[in-house]
Every structure is written in C-alpha cells, then in structure tokens.
Sequence to fold (424 residues):
Amino acid sequence: MLQLVNVGHKSLGDYASLAARGLMDEIRALAEPLAGKRVVHLSATAFGGGVAEILYTLVPLMQDAGLEVEWRIIRGADDFFNVTKTIHNALQGSPDGLTEAHEEIFHRYQELNARDFTDDYDFVIVHDPQPVGLIDHFPDSKAHWIWRGHIDFSTPNQDVLDFLLPSIGRYDATIFHLPEYAPRANGLPPAYIWPPAIDPLAPKNMALSAEDAAYIVDQFGIDVERPLLTQVSRFDPWKDPLGVIDAYRAVKKEVPEVQLALVGSMAHDDPEGWAYYNATVEYADGDPDIFILSNLNNVGSVEVNAFQVHSKVVIQKSIREGFGLTVSEALWKGRPTVAGRAGGIVVQIADGETGWLVDTAQDCAAACLEALRDPEEARARALRGKEHVRRHFLTPRLLRDWLNLFNRLAGNDTGVELATVVAE
Fold:
C-alpha cells in the first residue's frame, strides 16, 4: 500500500466564528448525502509546499464532515523527481522538454505506484503532475477520479502538456485555480475553477502576539529593533529570491538598518531546490543582514508565523505562481504585503487597495520603501486584505467547494452552479 499520512483530528466547530456567515450551515447540508463516502488524496510529498499544507487541514475536516478520507503518498526516487521537476517547470513556461528516457522513467513510476494502490474508493483525488498517470492503470475503476492542478498552466511548454493530456483526459473532473490555467483541448473533462485556502487555526496562521513573534525571530539572530523584510517560499527560480535580494539592496540604500529574511522549506520532491538554495546563499555574498533559513535550521510552522508577524513588509516576488498562499497568510496576519503580479496572487491583492503588485526588483523596492515610510497607510491596506482573505481564502470555503463537486459527481442536486471552463 502507498504510505498513509497521519493528519490528526480537526473539528469544523472550531472554525464557526471565523467563517463567512452561513457557510457552516451550507457545509453541513452538503455533507449529509455524502456520509460514509470513501475518499483518497494522492500527492508526491507530505511536507514542503502548499499542497501538503492544504491537505493537513482539508483531510481531517472532510473526516469531521462525515466522509471516510485518507491521504497517501506516492513512491519515487531522485530519477523520478528530477523528471517531475522538469515537468513542473515546463508547465510554467520553461522551454526544457522531456527526452524519451524521461518519459520512460515517468511511466515506469506510474506503473510502480499503481501496483501499490487499491482502487476501492468513491472519489480519488490526484494532486499535480507527479501521480497524474495512475489513472491509466485503472480503466475499469468505479471511482470518480479528480485531478487537481496547483501550478500556473497559463503559458505551458505545449510538448510537455501534450505528454500529460491523454492521462488528464481520463479523469471525471479537473480543478484549477484560475480559468486561464485550464487547458484548451478536445476530449478533456470539465474543468472546475476555485482557489486554494489557508487554515486560520494551524500553527502557521494562529494568532501570535508581537512579543512572542519578536522572541522567536530573535533566536535566529534577527535584530528585533530594526525593520525586517521577509519572503517565505521554496528556493525556486519562479519565486525569484535573487530579485528579492536586489530589492532589499535598493531599500538598504535608503534605509540602512533594514534586514532581509528568506525563509523556505526543502522538500524531497524538489531536487532542484538545493542548487537554487546554494545560488541564493552565494548571491547574498555574506551580507550579515540577510538571513537565509529553512526547515533544516529548525524553522517550522510557528517560526514562519513569527517571521511574518514580526516583519514590517512581507514579500512574495514570484515570477510564476500557481496561487501563492503565503500572500493570504501575510494578509491574514495584517501585514503589509508586496507581491509579484503573477498567477493567483492577483486575486488576493488589489493593487493600491490591499497591498502592492510589482513586476520588477525596482518596483518591489519602491513598494517596500512606501510601506516603511507610511506604516499607517500600509497597515490600513493590510487590514482590508485580511477581510478579503476571511471571505474568500479560508479552509471552510475550500471544503464547501469539494463537497459541492462530490455531490455533482455523485448525481446529487445541490442547486449550486459550479464555475467551469469548457474545453475548446
């Protein structure tokens, strides 16, 4: 059997005071006809990245709603994850494609994982490209198979996308963050559109006092009396940590006391991460006011929370971004947020209203300086952003979306119209 992830327990009742009005009643009504349905989530890793963070909350909340839900991890070695990282980058626009050897490795691991998977569920949810081909090995499955793409598919390397489309075409439904991510090709299932969400009660997002946050970041050498800029992301060229360093250097010319923290996580399905981590360290060039930290420095969820809470500005200078939940995390904490005009970030931040959207390192520096020089206006934007997150990007809303889709696929009429994109 594929590895089972232990997610613990969560109660929907704990979220009642945070959710939008009427949402909890809607969830209970949608869950009633699905009681006892068996659901499995399949993904590449149980830590590092937004998918894992979402599932640690979504799975136990689905369980609390009355469904029988599991989360299992596919198997893979470096040769497989090197290929899937190439696929990931290509789907976000990299020109590098797949060789015949790459394709053989990918198919071999799909078959290996299929041997360890028992197809006795009502709903099988496959996350991202790594396990997308498992469905090819279950042509007579009675389950409803759903593929959830979490990255920016708006300008894909078409050859690589075409390699995946035969598998995607076998699913009963697909889900994307934004309409422009859904592939336009014949023979594909309905594409449903909804954004991901953050867990406001998880250690990463729970209420943390300014004093506690300062105490925690002080342990990592941060001077808590001086302003701090922070980006929380994987070490990945699409997150542009080198551009963040350029922006910091421009800010430092005007505000010499400023510091920068680049806080990331190293995941086993991201072999490229180590190379880019080392490139980032080299680019920092020994600057004592640049702190490059990861889970290997004992930076966990509470520490990330503390860095975001303590920062004068939180940055997410992505060049490509599936969604970028770190933006919602920062806004939920009421922090001024400067982010790249990319992917799902643009539905989280209204430029000039709830934060800043930027295109270049120079733009990023100018926005950071504006926030540092006018903290009252920066705080007002952040608080408007927090309310936007409360209404649109918290986990109960995500659970509702899934329950709506399960009912749709099971033939239950909920009277709810789901946002879809029709393939052309």
Q: What stands out?
A: The chain has 13 helices and 14 strands. Residues 185 and 424 are 5 Å apart (CA to CA). The mean pLDDT is 94. The longest strand covers residues 38-43.
